[in-house]
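Worked example 2:
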Amino acid sequence: MTGILKATEKNLMVFAGRANPELAHEVAALLKTELVPTSAYDFANGEIYVRYEESVRGSDAFVIQSHTTPINEAIMEQLIMVDALKRASAKRITVVLPFYGYARQDKKHRGREPISARLMADLFKTAGANRLMAVDLHTAQIQGFFDGPVDHLMALPILSEYVRDKYGDEQLAVVSPDAGRIKVAEQWSERLGGAPLAFIHKTRDIYRPNETVANRVVGEVQGRVCVLVDDMIDTGGTITKAADALMADGAAGVVIAATHAILSGPAIDRLKACTASEVIVTNTLPIDEAHEFDKLTVLSIAPLISRAIQEVFEDGSVTSLFDGHA
């Protein structure tokens, strides 16, 4: 009795939605491949259509989409892309989320609220995703919302290396904008030669999103350049008030470092006007020219994403990219 033996080579294919094409092209170039040609357009009523222009059968597919404004369209487009891959017989589908939409809604503060971050994970699972890859989730617990492997990448090495090279000679302090992110601040401290930690004690009005009420500095920041670290800057209210509180408490200077530059509404004006001397972010979300300003520094996240994709494709270790911390 004879069977058919066929050893198929693994086939890496990278796909991108329309939300952040520059980042996707950069990732593909670093992987020494090209984005798969894709037709994507909107019908008159706003419905999204996607079709791939070449066969994806048996491929190891990576679908890159940043959940940028308009966020719901970006998410829906990515879901449709995953569904198209599943129906075209891709072997394994990895959803690459430089920024995971709805991540802030990861628990219930009051009754009758949704846990939208969990809903997002369920949607991608239903669409056909086998794996998620995200950069700096709002909280690590979101990894547990997806029933499958999740690669949680950290922008910390990219951001901290830049800060160390530029400000390493100064007396530094690492500051978390709230008590909840102190763990991340500890990792920053390790990478900046054991710089002391501080955090901002703030109260937030649960009835008014995006607004903080009061700031008090806990920790020794006098005469130090404070590296204020956060996962995202949305309207900029929290981070700019924190920067001003640090300067009022005798800091020698403030540098803001955040992964996701959402920059909604008044964020640009607030950042320009605040006391921070530099605002360092990554390009997990596209930043258009109108949002650029003198003290904004944008670092590319593409080298990190491309290395993680390479490790997943070759069945290597993503954790190894973060000294075993991921």
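The CA atoms of residues 32 and 291 lie 31 Å apart. The mean pLDDT is 94.
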